[in-house]
């Protein structure tokens, strides 16, 4: 990669040094609960090799991703990144907590912490706010509360949900996101945990390996629901990012959805375009973990099928174990396509 190429990284995980970092931003009784018991977040599948890069540990001894100054030195400056979108970490999964009020309190506290402890530290940092979608009316109020902050660019929710994301239950959230000019972002993590359903249509998987490999199946179901329930007709300015779920599953989904729609369009009479057209106009996928076949021509062919240079956003997933280095992936793409994927698509989407 040209060392002068600008980069916007759309999935960087900032985390807490300790659960006590959030306590100053909480009110009672939540402050007492977190102080005494920690966050108590649901999470089913743990990696046997760890999730965080050991070389990303800051010199102050905190966990990787917990020190803003070190993140700038270790990730941003060496890789010439103009912006990174901070997507948080385990708080993405708040919507799978059984206690909706507790989840909403954690979300509000985290969003205040994000603005104060991260976004204020450098103009490089952009933020994805979190919400607790169990109570869509409350989640919409939270979006309205901080959504106008100039460095908040997205609303991140978990891949897992109690009901598919296209259904009307979630529409107050999308209305608020559209009203505030924010992009919705789906990120995996707690599928099969808390109040969500099984992590796959086949049920509960046994290991982290199986769960991590099957994430695209969750994304396929969520995308089909969002398109077919008419979310993009109801909210014509709304955009969605499907983060960390892979890329190469998309051609199959668009072909089959278009084919079935031709015969079954009466079941979705509110759609005025072919499903694939809504996807191309409203949806983005992040690159990490990018599929890497032995023959690059195979990946190039799939990219051509989905107009990838206009739909993909670069993401590294820093500081997670399967980090994608922007100097190592997609090196054989044409220069113009790389410029769009690594920089211009995100710059346009977030109006930077």
TrEMBL record:
Pfam families for this protein: Amidohydro_2
Record keywords, A-Z: Lyase
SUPFAM superfamilies found in the cross-reference section: Metallo-dependent hydrolases (SSF51556)
Domain (Amidohydrolase-related) ranges: 9-351
InterPro entries xref list: ACMSD, Amidohydro-rel, Metal_Hydrolase
Molecular-function GO terms, alphabetical: carboxy-lyase activity; hydrolase activity
BP-aspect Gene Ontology terms: secondary metabolic process
GO cellular component: cytoplasm
Protein name: Amidohydrolase family protein
């Amino acid at each position: 990669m040209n060392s002068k190429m600008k980069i916007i990284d759309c999935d960087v995980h900032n985390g807490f040094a300790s659960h006590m970092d959030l306590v100053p931003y909480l009110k009672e009784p939540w402050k007492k609960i977190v102080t005494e018991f920690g966050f108590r977040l649901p999470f089913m599948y743990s990696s046997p090799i760890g999730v965080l890069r050991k070389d990303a540990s800051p010199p102050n001894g905190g966990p990787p991703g917990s020190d803003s100054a070190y993140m700038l030195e270790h990730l941003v400056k060496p890789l010439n990144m103009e912006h990174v979108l901070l997507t948080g970490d385990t708080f993405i999964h708040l919507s799978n907590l059984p206690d909706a009020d507790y989840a909403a309190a954690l979300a509000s506290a985290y969003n205040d912490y994000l603005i104060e402890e991260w976004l204020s530290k450098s103009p490089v940092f952009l933020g994805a706010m979190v919400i607790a979608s169990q109570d869509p009316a409350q989640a919409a109020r939270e979006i309205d509360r901080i959504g106008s902050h100039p460095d908040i660019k997205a609303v991140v929710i978990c891949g897992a949900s109690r009901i598919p994301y296209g259904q009307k239950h979630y529409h107050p959230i999308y209305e608020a996101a559209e009203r505030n000019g924010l992009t919705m972002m789906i990120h995996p993590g707690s599928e099969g945990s808390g109040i969500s359903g099984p992590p796959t249509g086949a049920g509960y998987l046994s290991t982290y390996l199986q769960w991590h490999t099957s994430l695209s199946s969750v994304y396929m179901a969520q995308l089909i629901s969002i398109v077919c329930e008419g979310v993009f007709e109801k909210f014509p300015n709304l955009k969605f990012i499907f983060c960390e779920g892979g890329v190469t599953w998309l051609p199959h989904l668009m072909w089959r959805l278009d084919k079935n729609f031709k015969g079954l369009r009466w079941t979705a009479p509110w759609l005025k375009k072919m499903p694939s057209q809504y996807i191309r106009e409203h949806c983005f996928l992040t690159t990490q973990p990018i599929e890497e076949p032995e023959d690059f021509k195979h990946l190039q062919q799939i990219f051509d099928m989905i107009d990838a240079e206009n739909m993909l956003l670069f993401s590294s997933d820093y500081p997670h174990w399967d980090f994608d280095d922007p100097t190592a992936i997609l090196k054989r793409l044409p220069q113009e396509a790389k410029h769009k994927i690594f920089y211009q698509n995100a710059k346009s989407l977030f109006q930077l």
